[in-house]
Write a structure and sequence with these properties.
Strand order of the largest sheet: 1-2
Strand content: 5-15%
Low-confidence stretches: none
Distance between the termini: 26 Å
Order of helices and strands: EHEHEE
Helix content: 25-40%
Number of domains: 1
Structural class: alpha+beta
Mean pLDDT: 79
Number of strands: 4
Shape: globular
Largest sheet: 2 strands, parallel
Length: about 70
């Protein structure tokens, strides 16, 4: 039996949904409407594009809806 994983667009990313998912693994994009997200994307984008131009992501730690995330 394989690992189950939810992959969704940014509509999944609400405080209630991330709380309801508990320990179930999921991947989504954080909407830029969440406070500070756009600024963080702009600050980190130059760094990861210079270091890893073949990838369009970086790993950051945060907490949203009382749920630790990375």
């Amino acid at each position: 039996m394989g690992l189950s994983l939810i992959v969704a667009d940014s509509a999944l990313y609400t405080a209630n949904t991330v709380q309801d998912l508990g320990d179930f693994p999921w991947i989504t994009r954080v909407p830029e409407t969440i406070g500070g997200t756009r600024e963080l994307i702009l600050a980190a984008s130059g760094e990861w594009l210079e270091i890893r131009p073949e990838r369009a992501y970086t790993v950051l730690g945060s907490s949203y809806g009382g749920v630790k995330q990375r």
